[in-house]
Amino acid sequence: MPLPDNNVPWPPPKLLPQLADMQVDDAWYSGDKAKLRRVYALQDIGTGHSERDGSGRPWRFWERPRPVGRRDGRLHVPLAADIAAKSAALLFSEAPTFTFETAAAQKRWDEIAEACGLDCVLREAAEVTSALGGGALRATWNTALAQRVLITAVHADSVLPDWSFGVLTGVTIWREVQREGDTVLRHLERHEPGTVLHGLYEGTSTNLGMKIPLTEHPDTAGIADTLDPEGPGDTIKTGVPGLTCVYVPNMRPNRKFRQSMLGRSDWQSDGVRDLFMSLDETYTSWMRDIRLAKARLVAPDGYLRSEGIGKGVSFDDDQEIWTGINASPTSGEGLTLVQFGIRVAEHEQSWRSFSRKAVESAGYSAQSFGLGDSTAITATEVLAQERSSLLTKGQKGGYWVPALAQFAETVLQLDRAQGFSTVPAERPRVELADSVTEDRQTTATTLELLTRAQAASVETRVRILNPEWDDTAVKEETERILKETGALVADPMMTGAEGPGAPGFPGGGGEEAD
């Protein structure tokens, strides 16, 4: 599929409803109150709802227009951003493990991953994927910047993937490089097997416009020098058989757009967004209570001092003696202190309830957000309390693991095709790190019980304590333990171990002693 023709609608009409929905997700994710007012004002205009003329339902919290002539006192609680950050932390708080068959491929991948800051790129991609419903990882190169492959994350609202029977066949990435009035310059980057196509278009907010030379804008001028001179004029050959870009959905299916393969946001449903809005309204009400609870004095006219004609009156709160008044000391006349109460318990209970329901509806455990019992508990109890979060992580991992394996192989293919190395490419085995690990005390207790029951060999116990060790390290540690505990006589579970019952020892399977 080539680049789009001139003067076609952009973004593509079939994508407009989902992009509009992504704008709402993005507004909640950004925490920008101006964005929230804008996206909900647009929705209000589209539905014709109005609070003033009595037609339709009343405005919801962020649908209300900004007060004229005074500060907008509405508060925003960034729970949506917290959910996206928690999603990324569950997936990539620790780097995933890429295991290659050959040492050369493993070494080269580790070099590229470290130089690219792959851990940070994956956390960025996972966080935005949680918010917008998907994202892409792109492999590119620029010899003026580095002698290696470059890895970047691309957000879902600027990606147009193509699938055939569930297989990704192409990806179009676009960005605005300039906007002046209604004139928009867009750079389109089309990834196809073996090639990447580039095009610069001058159009409007809703139309792609005419294709112009890449040299017309400094952001794309450098690409013109890398185009294939033997190609159609807008193509770069990658030298790899597949795509140099992978798309990762957050979760499927998309409940609003069931035919879409782009994925869905963690808070796509209106129910979760309404909970976000209720949480903002609760905090705003709480802050209003605090503001109104400031102590105020109501003073009689006799306590006020005139500042002159047209200058009003003032009250000196440091003055100790005022003009006497003809009233009993217990009459309540004179200065009156006014201070309203703050409904702390009611507001706290409300925001906790809204927060808990929102994170649970998004697929996470309340414990993951500090909304559960704060009592110190073991790792086993953590697993039980955070089951929903871990299940959601497992579902998302089902999309991330195969995409990362394919992407790592593509990176090594591209690395060799561009002459950065001579290492043959291969597809690795990818494993995500555990989100919850046993503490040392719990592990030590488990190992002690296994030892007393003679239910596990020393080698097995070493592997339980150090699951990240390879076979060589496990073997060396096992031998050290056996030597320290009695010259390899302490582990009857070890096959072929030297010691009582082993060949060469009395009672063993070897020759009898004279």
Q: Can you give a write-up of this model?
A:
- This protein is of the alpha+beta class and 514 residues long.
- It contains 13 helices and 15 strands.
- Strands 4, 5, 6, 7, 8 and 9 form a 6-stranded antiparallel beta sheet that branches. A 3-stranded antiparallel beta sheet has the order 3-2-10. The protein has a two-stranded antiparallel sheet with strand order 1-15.
- Helix 7 packs antiparallel against helix 8 and helix 11 packs antiparallel against helix 12.
- The longest helix has 31 residues.
- The radius of gyration is 33 Å and the shape is flat.
- The termini are far apart.
- The C terminus is likely disordered.
Please tally the β strands and state the result.
15
Low-pLDDT residue intervals, each spanning 5 or more residues: 45-55, 495-514
Question: What is the mean predicted local confidence, pLDDT?
Answer: 83
Large-scale geometry: flat
**Which sheet architecture does the biggest sheet show?**
6 strands, antiparallel
| Cα-atom radius of gyration | 33 Å
Cα end-to-end separation = 86 Å
Helix content: 25-40%
Count of helical regions = 13
Instruction: Please indicate the percent range of residues in DSSP E strands (runs of 2 or more).
Output: 15-25%
What's the helix-strand series? HHHEHHEEEEEEEHEEHEEEEHHHEHHH
Decide which structural class fits the backbone: alpha+beta
